[in-house]
Amino acid sequence: MTLYFDAAAALFQVYPSYSGRWEDCLWLNVPGPVYGAETDNCATGRLEAPRHIHYGGEYFTEYVYRQPRTPDEVRDVLSAIEADPMDGYAWDGDQRWTPESVREWWRDRERVLEYLRDQVHEWERYDRWIPNQRAVEGALDFAAYIAGGTDSGSLETDLRIYLYWLQERRSPTPADRLPEL
Prior knowledge:
Elements: H1 7-14, E1 35-36, H2 45-48, E2 53-56, E3 61-64, H3 71-83, E4 89-90, H4 93-96, H5 99-107, H6 109-118, H7 120-129, H8 135-147, H9 155-168
Antiparallel strand pairs: 1-4, 2-3
């Protein structure tokens, strides 16, 4: 049994190239292969991948708050990517994130949590405007994921698995020791 699912490899099979630019990567993106960079703000991402995509930043663009970990989750995220008219998603994060930058993102997670708390009124407005967005639900899910209290596991564990992937370029097994954040 392996712990890391290579979502980038699955996406590269469908789309060998991508349009998003690392320089435009929104700071809210969770470290991993897939990220939003100058996506649209048409509120389509959560409709396609509600357990992975949320909105934020200066222009309320889309970002990835949970990396896909199964083929079904890749399909959901791929639907969000295909619905983005700006072609702002990319899946070359494995070549961009370093162990140091992942750890830095994790150390700065309070900034993300503060942002989520401060923007609740905006997501309530989104939910009134487009009821099936469930933007408040997504923000609460992201905050719980950071805190380690979701049915999908904890971001801390997922990031430790991702660090192993970055350092070893293979998935850890349950017997492997995961790096610290």
